[in-house]
Amino acid sequence: MGIADNYSRGRRLLVERPGQALAAVVGVLLVLALFADLAAKLGSGALGVGDVVLLAWRGVVNGLVIGLAGVGLSMTYSILNFANFAHGDYITGGAFVGWAVAWLVAGLGEYDIGSLLSLGLGADVYAPQLGTSIFGAPLALLLGLVAAGVGAIAIALLIDKLVYEPMRGQDGIALLIASIGVAFILRYLIVFVWGTSVTSVADEAGGLRPTVGGVTFSFGYHELTLVVCAVVLMVGVHVLLQRTKLGKAMRAMSDNQDLARVTGIPTERVIKWTWIIGAGLAGVAGYLLILEAGTIAYSRGWILLLLIFAAVILGGIGSVYGAIFGGLVIGLADSMSIIWIPSDFTKAAAFALMILILLFRPSGLFAGRTTA
Amino acid sequence: MSSDTAGSGSAAGDEPTAESDASGADTDAEAPASATGRDDDAGVTATGREADEVGAHIDGTPALAVKNLRKTFGGITAVDGTSFAVEAGKMTGLIGPNGAGKSTTFNLITGFNRPDSGQVLLNGDDITGKQPYEIADRGLVRTFQIARELEEMTVLENMMLGPQHQSGESLWRAVTPGVRSSVKRDEEKVLERVWEMLDFFDIAHLAEEYAGNLSGGQRKLLELARALMTDPDILLLDEPFAGVNPSLENRLLEHVHELREQGYTFLLVEHDIDLIMENCSRVLVLHQGKLLADGEPAEIKADERVIEAYLGGEVE
Amino acid sequence: MSVRDYLDRLTGTGRADTDAGAPGDGAAGTDLGIVVGLMLAVYVVFVAIGVVLGYDTNGIVNALSQVTFLTAVYALVVLALNLHWGYTGLFNIGVAGFMAVGTYTMAMATAAPDARVPGLGLPIWAGIALGMAAAAVIGLVAALPALRLRADYLAIVTIALAEIIRLTYLSSAVQTFTVFGTQLGTGGGSGIGIEADPDTVVVEFLASVPGLNVLFDAFGSVLSGMGVQQSVINNWYYAFVLLVVVVAYYWLLQRIGHSPFGRVLKSIREDEDVARALGKNTRLFKIKSFMVGCSLMGLAGILWFGSYGFINPNTFLPQVTFFVWIALIIGGAGSNTGGVVGAAMFAAVLFELPRYLASIAGDTGGLPSAPPTFARAVGALFDLEPLAFVAYGIDNIGPLRLVLVGVVLIVLMQRRPEGLLGHRKETAASIGLSRPNRSRETTDATAATDGGEEQ
Ligand SMILES: Nc1ncnc2c1ncn2[C@@H]1O[C@H](COP(=O)(O)OP(=O)(O)O)[C@@H](O)[C@H]1O
Ligand SMILES: [Mg+2]
Description:
The complex is a heterotrimer.
Chain A lengths: L2 H14 L1 H27 L4 H31 L7 H21 L5 H5 L9 H4 L7 H27 L7 H23 L4 E2 L6 E2 L2 E2 L2 E2 L2 E2 H23 L1 H11 L1 H6 L4 H27 L1 E2 L3 H16 L4 H17 L9 H15 L12
Antiparallel strand pairs in A: 1-6, 2-5, 3-4
Helix pairs in contact in A: 1-2, 3-9, 3-12, 3-13, 3-14, 4-7, 4-8, 4-12, 4-13, 7-12, 9-10, 9-12, 10-12, 13-14, 13-15, 14-15
Chain B lengths: L44 H11 L8 E10 L2 E11 L4 E5 L6 H8 L7 E6 L2 E2 L5 H6 L2 E3 L12 H7 L9 H5 L3 H22 L15 H13 L5 E5 L7 H16 L3 E5 L3 H7 L2 E6 L2 E6 L1 H6 L1 H12 L1
Parallel strand pairs in B: 3-8, 3-9, 6-7, 7-8
Antiparallel strand pairs in B: 1-2, 1-4, 4-5, 9-10
Helix pairs in contact in B: 4-7
Chain C lengths: L1 H19 L7 H25 L4 H31 L7 H16 L13 H23 L4 H20 L6 E3 L2 E3 L7 E2 L4 H11 L3 H14 L4 H28 L2 H18 L4 H23 L5 E2 L6 H14 L4 H29 L9 H9 L3 H10 L1 H19 L21 H12 L7
Antiparallel strand pairs in C: 1-2, 3-4
The complex binds adenosine-5'-diphosphate and magnesium ion.
The site of magnesium ion has 3 residues of chain B, from helix 2.
GO biological process, one term (chain A): amino acid transport
Family (chain A): Belongs to the binding-protein-dependent transport system permease family. LivHM subfamily.
Subcellular location (chain A): Cell membrane
């Protein structure tokens, strides 16, 4: 793809879709204006470099969680053809399972099993007592991580069996509505077991505080853990989808389900694997999110869901890299827009961005480029 | 452009594209130099002219004309600079192998797709890029290749939908006490026509049936009947006989002929060449988006390139 | 399931009726029968349970008024949503947002200028009109670009819009603000009181109408004679008023549905391209349908949440939208009667009944105290104390009830997506469509000469 090619693409866009071209120009100008404003704010001292870096770092951390969870949503959206409104609750479900296991391992023998599995709901055990940080209980946290993925996968497969499999022939809207039912079941079973309170489950771990040029930065160890895990998993998914037959089959199925079936792709198996990868990443994302945030609550994933949808739509439904990129954009937008707009509106701004994408470029920002 | 509303089955390939949404500024980039569409087609020139003279409107304007129509989808050129005219009161056939661009031509004429370039003239007026409803309003009504009946509506409801500008289509008239009685009176008039039309097409016994329960052939009948309820001047029928059993096909043909005698103009897309040759007074042949031939059935039958293209098309 | 059989039977007769008489007018008798029968059945169940378990009269009557209130308010929103989804096929899951706009606008318009959250101090009727208008306008703003989207995209856009609306009301930036020199406010996170609380205002108004007040007094004195508290009696008054509004909504939406306008909406739901090919300006129809539905949602929000006397942004969580959707699906989208039945089933059976049972069980005692955590409750099971587990369940009936809601929704989508009432033939026309007498003669004539040339 040469420059000339790009150039003619651009020209065609101008001629064929003046509205979109205009929107793109306005968008670019807006971003430039924002950066100019940022530079001015930095120059005038209204904002320090450290503040900006901190916001950007927070944006990256949140964006990776959104992107990691978004991969699964994007895959199920394109392969099973429906918007899964229960995806957020897979995230929460995985997080609770993972943390219950982490607590169990960390406190086994010392504390009552029931109290541990209840995540201290009975006010009889606390995170600092267990030392549930990556330094305090690394093994417990690692096992919890695995359990979060496995738990979410188990939930997803069970639900697929009971709910979606009998509905395979139905259209996306019926499945979407059913997924709302699934969301209710999962969320309120979680409430039934763990209640509605916000409980602190991860212990403090501190962080790196390097000073560069007189400005002190701060990177929490749990944040760093999250970033490392998320990047490793994303690379893993990339390898899985690029190097294996499964990846090829998935791409074929998201392109054309019927054709894939005719050409002998074992669609049921691909669907199972879609759930396994998607839910596994969702569960782990939820677990890491709680590790970094410190507290857990039943509505954690649900609150995140619309942002994940925003990321997936931004990146183009069905695109794994799009979901990751979209996650980073949404994460950064959510955290950094506070520089320009009141903090009350940062989430609203992310939703508004998603609506604009759906209205003007429903195939995502990278439409036309086939990825996994 | 939406289409999936209640989530009924999707017709792959008929997905309307986003292009048709762009505002009206970007059409008609190049004015066609020669608009006859016969410049590459020396063989039929003479008769082509003759046909023009016979079928022309009183003022010489054809009922429908397209000029240098072009449409691409990504890399595919579906319609490639096609020009032709349809004479009023005649039955014109449009044939061509699968993928020749027949349905796309229909979509371009009826406003479902926006042409990249070219013009559509209805009784001499430029209707290029107008909305489908505006075009239907001007008396040009189409049917779809895959019969698109409104499945969960009864045959009667389907038919009642046809007439345009019904007083009760206005929301306030439909609900306001007092005014509604005039709506009811208008509906009674429509209803009478509906039953006449159902009788004409011999589907009155299906009146209470859901359209989704009809057989393929019955759906085609219903679709034509429903289109007629709009009181059109020109009907564009996309493969109206596909999937219709022979006896029903004959009946449908009879109806079409009868309607033509009453003054309706028809443009008919059909797969079956023989059927077109027997029933149309003029035949257009489309091949790879281009108009290959345009003339009376006899000439088309004798046209070497048509035979070649068709055989090529049929074989693959 | 006996309820379903019962409904099936009723619908069976309903279907026969529809073909005979004018739709919307003729079948109304049976449909009314379905709804009234269902409500009576619900009342009987509630009373029976209350009596058997020894619940006091005040409690039973209060529960019944609660059931009636919830059924009515759900019916209002469900009917409005049915116009969007059931008739026009517009997948709107931003219902809570449109209700928020209606209710907030009304609250801000009617709040006194010197209240904690200052408002315009307008009378309630003006507030209601403004609320409905505002919801319609927001509906228009959403409709203009979004109604051409695919159903699932429209769903995401509408739920995101509803969240944007909620977050905006939540924002401290608009807690109080000044336009044209007038102080106004939303109250931000701490909410806003509703000065002209519809239930008080409406009930006071009714009590002042000669004739009606006698009726209300008589009803009230009968109940208070049975030991029912005045507040419960007032709830009943308001519930009656709401039922009247439900009838008005039903009447309006039946008229819309059974008209050429409704016929075009239905055709858009089935296949928008066909409607366009037949010369219908579908965009305009969709916008109208959307705006009308939104303003009806706005009014429903006012009558529902407004009557609580106080709202805050979390009154309008996406939850609310999903509840309304589930009610619509239970009854069967596309049918107004189905919508009302769904509202009653959802509000009474899924929502109130479990809570009612639990509160009776809690009151009547006999159960051990509930363990504090689920783990303890499970532990109690191992200690062969199942009653402790039951007590935990009763203590946590709130979430269990919502699990049940989810299960019901899934089972319906799998087994009976057309709703409890099944498929209903509701002809979209203002008149009966049977063959008019005059043309029957001409047909007979045609039939006689059939085979030759017709006409
Ligand atoms: N909406 C569309 N998007 C992409 N390609 C299309 C679309 N509609 C038609 N085409 C392509 O245009 C060509 C002409 O199709 P069509 O007009 O349906 O042919 P016909 O009706 O003669 O069989 C085909 O190659 C078809 O795949
Ligand atoms: Mg075709």
